[in-house]
Automatic annotation (TrEMBL), chains A, B:
Keyword set, alphabetical order: DNA-binding, Transcription, Transcription regulation
Annotated ranges, domain HTH marR-type: 29-163
Pfam families with a match to the protein in the record: MarR_2
Domain of life: Bacteria
Identification of the protein by name: MarR family transcriptional repressor of emrRAB
Organism: Fulvimonas soli
PANTHER family associated with the record: TRANSCRIPTIONAL REGULATOR, MARR, TRANSCRIPTIONAL REPRESSOR OF EMRAB OPERON
PROSITE patterns: HTH_MARR_2 (PS50995)
Single Gene Ontology MF annotation: DNA binding
UniProt keyword annotation of DNA-binding present: yes
Keyword Transcription carried by entry: yes
DNA sequence: AACGCATATTTCACCAGTGAACGAAGTATG
DNA sequence: CATACTTCGTTCACTGGTGAAATATGCGTT
């Protein structure tokens, strides 16, 4: 695949030319959106690459991590959908896959018989504990040359943008 | 779907708890990656939402934009693959779709008969000129409250991260 | 000029994610 | 207490994207 910086300079030139043709275009904002999209998906691809050897995809990994991070190691499909930003359909498949591998269990909830209780198994915990640490070095390397202030600033700006996006959301028409 | 800031605080808590259990985890870096991924894909979703009424998906839109921004309005599948970060397989389908709608044409290249020359049509240009401007307001709104320095800084940090990602890339094993 | 090798695009089979519809369980209303 | 409405999870059919092989052209060597 092509280097990220190549795509970025292509994008820069393209938007530069567009700016001259299309008056009124918010060029800087468009640039930032493209950057966000490119870097964001590249980060995800990088993650998926590290997950492939474990035969996990991104959504399964995220689901497993949420369960792992829970003090009681359990949740429900609906909640997992919400926090992984996945549709219920997909969560069903994810839960199927993880159950099949013995990393989680699915059982009926006592309080509300509509709900399903999903719980990480001891094997699931061991799996996470084993696969996670090898990822740390590359994760750190990604931010090589970033000062503490840089990281803080990046976090601040991304959260600010996220707030704007939430506020913006309603656009069904 | 669930608000972005909800997912973010979930993620913050989750990584917070993880940091206590998993010693040596680069928590801040992990947080930034998750943020990048979430905000990036949210931006893409926002774009796709705006494209849906025009019956375009993200890749088709990007392809069309590249062609539009070219002085001569033309390119080749290979080049488009490179700059859209799409596989050749997909580019074939994209070109099929855009050709069918009369927005581009496909013809043999004169210099290298292996190559295919893709060119935006006048109808394609009109289409872009019509669909683009209505997107500007929301695009600007996304960065409401961002100072010029904020935008500059966000751009700088994303580009820096992109460079690191390129440098990092080789990890096939 | 004929052979093998490299490159560009397409075709095919498959995978992950999505929207619509369904059945089961709960909740509210007359 | 019966009927309608809601919520939760699953199933199914479809879309967008990917990897491996097929096809076609060009390039370099002998």
């Amino acid at each position: 695949m092509s280097r990220l910086s190549t795509c970025i300079s292509m994008m820069d030139e393209g938007i530069g030319r567009m700016g001259q043709i299309m008056p009124g275009m918010p060029g800087e904002e468009a640039r930032l959106c493209r950057l966000l999209a490119m870097v964001g998906s590249h980060v995800l691809e990088e993650l998926e690459r590290k997950l492939k050897p474990h035969k996990l995809n991104h959504s399964e990994f995220l689901t497993l991590m949420i369960l792992y991070s829970r003090p009681d190691g359990s949740s429900t499909p609906g909640e997992l959908c919400e926090f992984t930003s996945q549709g219920a359909t997909n969560m069903t498949r994810i839960a199927n896959a993880l159950t099949q591998r013995g990393l989680i269990t699915r059982g009926a909830s006592r309080e509300d018989r509509r709900r399903v209780q999903i719980r990480i198994t001891p094997a699931g915990r061991r799996f996470v504990q084993k696969m996670l640490p090898p990822m740390f070095p590359r994760l750190s390397a990604m931010y090589e040359g970033f000062t503490a202030a840089d990281k803080r600033e990046l976090g601040r700006l991304l959260r600010k943008l996220a707030d704007n996006l939430d506020r913006l959301e309603p656009l069904p028409p």
